[in-house]
Amino acid sequence: MELVAHNVTLAYEDVNVVSGLNCVIPPRQITTFIGPNGSGKSTLLRGLARLMKPRAGVVLLDGKEIHRSGTGQVARRLSMLPQRPTAPDGLLVRELVALGRFPYQGFLGALTAEDDRQIDLALRTAGVEALADRPLGELSGGQRQLAWIAMALAQNTPAILLDEPTTFLDLAHQLEVLELLEKLNRDAERTIVMVLHDVNQAARFSHHMVALSRGTIVASGKPEDVITADLMRQVFDIEAEIMHCAATDSPLCVPLSRSPE
Amino acid sequence: MRAAFTSHWRIFAALSGLLIVELLASLLLGNSAISLSHLPSLLAGGGEFDARLVLFQLRLPRAVVAMLVGSALAVAGTLLQGLSGNDLTSPATIGVEAGSGLGLMFLIVAMPLSAARHPLLAPLASILGALAIAAIVFSLAYRHGSILPARLLLVGIAVGYAVQAAMLLLSLRMNYVTYSYVLTWMSGSLSSADWTSAAMLAPALAIVGSMALSKTHVLNVMAIGDEAAAALGVAVHRQRLTMIGLAAVLTSLGAAVAGQIGFIGLVAPHLARRLAGDDYRVVLPLSAIAGAALLLLGDALGRQLVQDVEIPAGVFVGILGGCYFLYLLATTKN
User: What dotted CATH number matches B2-329?
Assistant: First the structure.
């Protein structure tokens, strides 16, 4: 699975959010976009998931222009979990996960044996088997997020894109989600691309990081190369001390103060 | 699909049973009552001439048209509520219904004689009016390659009011007789229903209705939001356009025959969802049955309740629907 943004400009109405940006998503790795609010990280993710059409440039999925490929064809290669997705409260977890099979179904949506197998597998992998027959409205925020991830898993795509999958979750549930994504990458060789707000969690769980500021990529590479005091100043406007965490073998950023004007 | 139907078969059976009872009642009751024991022989072509005439030329076509129109409006409402994610959307809110009224009034004012001579002109004019207004609403709501539901509703309501103003203006140019005819039509009446209108509605409803049914799976996916649906490979904007088009055609068909009873398109899908949940593959056909039952009941009440005066079906549909919503309001906690 190859996902490449080539010279991409993305805009809402007339405001360019991302302009002339180049980005290669390394296959079978975990890539995280970081940056302050309004830096264009979510917009870039949406562009990569063909939810936004580039004003200029192209997004290539396996060498083919993503906006010229069939929507169903793309949906079998790439799944995307939006920020704070919503569903009817009465929808059962199993029904939600079954929607993930849409790209493989005929027009009336009858489930085949293969669909059922994939749904069960997705429920099990995401650890929400026990919740399968509960309505979404009854679940906690963390359980609901896992159910949504199970839906993306049922889509059975080599790449999964997630927009801030840990926002609004407590620490334990944040780790639960990130550990699940790590496991999916390690055991099932899925390519994971996500937007995270927490720089330390990003450094801890990613192979590859991309730092954005004002719609352009400021730095990209391994976490230890991206997370530097200079970059924190440049991207987030903060002074920070960067340490090495022995327990996770990843860089740890301790924010100290806002940068002087 | 199969599982969805089997788990809801009781609701389907109950509603269909109700519909059959209503159908029998509306065939048997009326100014000259027909007894149940005579019905089989009448249906087989025997019995008295007068009774056969009442049954085959008046009551049966009227009941059939009531069921067809009720289903058409209910299916249109289900589509609109599903595609906009808003339970309060109905064929009336997107201006289509008013458009069909405008078409009809235009015809009556511009060519009163031809309108009286050719019975098919009136439905044709109201379908054209509905589609013209639908086209205006869509083009005003269309922006950046898509129609946003919220925009569609606002534009629809605004255009609806403008159309009603135009209708009022037209009605000032009418004499008393024509105006009372239009007024009856506007309150939603089945008094002009005959086999011709049934023959026009049935095939159209069969085609557009099955197209709508084929969209139910997509509606289920669209319930999780535009972005998530698009990520699953749904061409959200194109699907929405198609569904709005289907709903507009269904509404104009219903309005052409029976006038403004779009309220059914609000109540029937509501009722179906409350009985069967969120799966549109179940809700849509159930809503069609509920719509048929509701209009048949409204029409039967309008014909029977007051002697010698026929109250338009729309009035009773409005009362029944209003009561249903009051009941919802009283029993819903939040």
Answer: 1.10.3470.10
